[in-house]
Amino acid sequence: MTFVGNLRRVVGFRTARDYLLGTALFAVIYVTLDLFSDTKPPHWSLLIAYVAYCTVYTLFASWRLVSGAWTPRRWARTTLVFCIPISLFVGYTASTIPHLFLLFGLFIIGIGLPMIGQLRAALWVLTLAVYLGTYLFGLWKLHPEYLFNNKQSVALSTVMFAAITYWLARISWFVEEASKKSTRTLVVTRKQKRELDRISKELRLKDKSLARDLNFARNFQLNQLPDLEIFNTGGFKSAMHYIALDTVGGDIIDMVRFSPDRIGVFVGDVSGHGVRAAMVAMMARVGFANLCKMSDDPAIVAAALNAFLCRSLENDRSCYMTAIYVIIDRSTMQMHLTCAGHTPAILIRTNHTIEEIDTHPSLFLGVEPDQGYKTTTVSVQPSDKLLLYTDGLTEPLNDAGEQYGERVFGEFLRSRAGLEPSEILAGLAVSMEGFTTENLRDDVAIVCVKVE
After folding, report:
1. pTM
2. How far apart are CA 41 and CA 19, in angstroms?
3. For the chain, which domains are there?
4. In the chain, pLDDT over 90 holds for what percent of residues?
């Protein structure tokens, strides 16, 4: 802060202006009494010294306060200590004009009022006691006859002034204690705020780290989807669509090529969604990759995968997976499939008819380790298309509260039955977006394979 800036702040300091105004007012009363009253105050030299003392100290103390050299508490206590000489002078003046004792006492009290709560009550008592003691001592020395003739009024004035002193001291004490309590509360609040800021910063860093980890997991999961270029040769043409409700999802699409004429298609849906479902889905995918070549019978592979999941999940029945596994053999033009509580497979025939393949009812994977599964065999024709999907596809609602459902889904397939797999799935995405404006309720996995 510059000198000019501090000077402006001193001039604008209201308490400083009030003190200077009080000094001037006291001087006016002093001069008035000297000129127009029979009772004369002390010599003018004392008044000049008093005015100079008050003016210099007020400006000095105010400068120290506004420049930051003094705290408000130090300013108040130092000011009241420097007011002791003022109490001596005003008390002496009051002793020369006894009938104005209370008026001058109010002046002394007025000096300390702006400092209530900023100083100790003992300083209040000291300052006012100096005024009262000086007044009584001066009265005893200068006007003993007044003291003798007005004993009752002097005693009453003294008691009143002592009562006011005590009252102001108590107020100052209460305000000071309240200030200390507020300061302690403020300190605690600031500590709590710093702690909250620290925790918030740590949480933000952890959120960023978690977001990076989840983004990595998402990319890893997407990279594990089948490379369709491997399966779009040798008389097969395929397309798929995968949408995770959260950053990572619990749906699975996997494909395996056994020979130029035989491929396997696996679709699964883990209960729930998010990280837990994604972890189980990854576990199931690893299990399927290790078990898919153990047998040409999908039911045997499903039973082995079920036992693997039950062991891995430690029979936690709150987490399970529906699945459907299909082996397509172009050499025999047959499909062999098994279903574990999953949505039925759909066969789009060359003549554009839509067939829902009936399979043997069976339990989810990961529930009963000894659960058995059965295989269903279906003949296919060239240009037939197989469609496998998870139930997240049919769950979205429109504004009327109606589900996309199997009816709307079936109408869409009948209208697009002659299209290629990639065209069907692209149109399906547009159809779903046109049907609903809400977010998905579950992960969605769709795969379509055409037998050429």
Report:
1. 0.59
2. 21
3. 3-193 (no CATH), 226-451 (3.60.40.10)
4. 25
